[in-house]
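Chapter summary example.
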Amino acid sequence: MENHVNTLWGQFYGWLPTLLSYVGQLVLAIIVLLVGWSIINMITCGMGRMMAASNIEPTLRGFLLSVVGLLLKALLLISVASMVGIATTSFVAVLGAAGLAVGMALQGSLANFAGGVLILLFRPFKVGDSITAAGNTGTVVSIEMFRTVLQDSTNDIVYVPNGTLSNNVVVNSSQSERLLASVGLLIDYNDDIDKARSLLLDLFQNDALVLKTPAPSVSFLPKPANIAVTLGFWCAPGNVTPLVAKYSEASIQALKKEGFRLGVTARTAA
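The structure predicted for these 270 residues follows.
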């Protein structure tokens, strides 16, 4: 019996260095985990303050902070696991393969997500802007991570993928302080073009919404059967549509009153 006890004590003393070494590694790993977790939280908080100071969109800010925090914490956990002797090579390989498979399956959605990040980061347009992109024209209602929502002139809601917006030409009419609007008409070759110019320019005399500089203009272009008249004027972006409608009607009435023979009219806004 005594020999058996001595044998157990001998085995225990033999295992003791290994046990102490493992306990030391475990304690060190716990300390690294706690300290690393705190540092990651401080890093994400600091990034959040920097992004807020840079006026980065709250949606993008929250997402980026979440992604950075998750990546850093995943790396920390893998490092701590390797410290206590857990093999992490196969685990990292499995995660990489899974990430590749998910990326291949969601490549379209990832392109839209990347486009949303670029839009929120570089701000080619914002909510309330009037834009033309990918064959769609409307007012930006909201910018989401995967799509941008527009409302067109007929109040239809248009959903445009962000990947399309970030990889195509976008015309933002709201970023300019002024836009050129124009009204098109057709008059007869026998009509007096000087009189037409005078009558049309007189329409703008008392309109505060039409800019005086650059001044309104009237141009003429010969057509096979008529003369095309273009009445151009500058105004604020939000006034283009109502002013085009107003002067399309006013120009027709003014010329008809003086006996001009009008052809088919056309209205445009640039």
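To summarize the output: The helical segments are 2-53, 58-83, 89-105, 107-122, 162-166, 193-202, 240-257.
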